[in-house]
Specification:
By secondary structure, the chain is mainly alpha-helical. 77% of the residues lie in helices and 0% in strands. Helix 2 packs across helix 3, helix 3 crosses helix 13 and helix 8 packs antiparallel against helix 13. It starts with a helix and ends in a 6-residue tail after the last helix. Its main location: membrane. Belongs to the binding-protein-dependent transport system permease family. FecCD subfamily.
Length: 331
């Protein structure tokens, strides 16, 4: 218990450092004193303080929420499926969001980020609903393996349709290219306001049902003996994963490896206790996305590399090292 608490505190410290870097570093470096003044006593005549308050605060908060949401969604998926390599993509969420955005761009109804967010959210949600509807039919309805297979099949189908549309529409391809790279650029206060309640409430519910999900993961017979509704818990977890991953994907574009690598690393640090796993995953996921976003700002000035690209590179590298240097953590 004490060791887990210390690990959670350490993860919180790492996140605090990442937040500081995100507010201070960019195409224009800003000293910490100016950052602090922008947060506590804003001078509207200071360009540097306006950069912090108007641009970097929203970008940082979106990064925190998206990273935490993806990592918690990944931890829930891994516990539900009892597969340490599961991630929210198994539900077809990224593919569904991508197809929805591509369709909207082709029809000319999603020219800006503000329009793409709700469209991506709806597409991600519909994909997850279809996967669950397929996986919930027939023998062994709702079983994790059926859901995973349904997700893989639907993802392949949706991806092929998406690519087919892109191949025949160069204008859509150009706009889609900017979204699919994943980015926190240009996020406004309204985006933060929309994302905060979804992510915080969903994570809170996940923590409340974490013990029940833990019991289901240990064995269905034991869960039934405790009076837990296995079907109800599975359905609720699918809904939670969908809300978290869809919100993150809609806000920041497809970001890979966060939902896979962070929970796996967190499990190696705190064990299989799901409440602690969710807390450490949320902190670690938020920190990873912010660090990757900062790296993307500084490696190719004056331009930027999308956070989805840097996350894929760094997250993949971290996961490869984990795979080489430690055995796979069993659930």
């Amino acid at each position: 218990m004490r060791q887990r608490a210390l690990i959670a505190i350490a993860a919180a410290v790492v996140l605090l450092i990442a937040i500081t870097l995100s507010l201070a570093i960019g195409s224009r470096a800003i000293d910490l004193a100016t950052v602090w003044q922008a947060l506590t006593d804003l001078d509207p005549n200071s360009p540097e303080q306006l950069i912090v308050s108007e641009l970097r605060v929203s970008r940082t908060v979106i990064g925190i929420l998206a990273g935490a949401a993806l990592a918690v969604a990944g931890a829930l998926m891994q516990s539900l499926t009892r597969n340490p390599f599961a991630d929210p993509g198994l539900l077809g969420i990224n593919a569904g969001a991508s197809l929805a955005v591509v369709t909207a761009l082709t029809l000319g109804v999603a020219g800006g980020f503000a329009a793409q967010v709700p469209i991506a959210f709806v597409g991600a949600g519909l994909a997850a609903v279809i996967v669950y509807a397929i996986g919930a039919r027939g023998a062994a309805a709702g079983a994790p393996v059926r859901l995973a297979l349904a997700g893989v099949a639907l993802t392949a189908l949706i991806t092929s349709i998406t690519y087919a549309v892109l191949l025949v529409d160069d204008a859509t391809l150009e706009q889609y290219r900017l979204w699919v790279a994943g980015s926190l650029t240009g996020r406004q206060t309204e985006d933060v306001t929309a994302l905060i309640p979804i992510v915080l409430i969903t994570i809170a519910v996940a923590l409340l049902v974490s013990r029940q999900l833990e019991a289901v993961a240990l064995g269905e017979d034991a869960a039934r003996a405790l009076g837990i509704s296995i079907g109800g818990i599975r359905t609720l977890v699918i809904v939670l994963v969908t809300l978290l991953a869809a919100a993150a994907t809609a806000a920041a574009g497809p970001i890979v490896f966060v939902g896979l690598a962070v929970p796996h690393l967190a499990r190696a640090l705190v064990g299989a206790s799901l409440p602690w796993l969710l807390v450490v995953s949320a902190l670690g996921g938020a920190a990873l996305v912010l660090v990757c976003d900062v790296i993307g700002r500084v490696v190719a000035p004056p331009g930027e590399i999308g956070v989805g690209i840097t996350t894929a590179f760094i997250g993949g590298f971290i996961f490869a090292l984990m795979s080489r240097r430690m055995k796979v953590v069993e659930l």
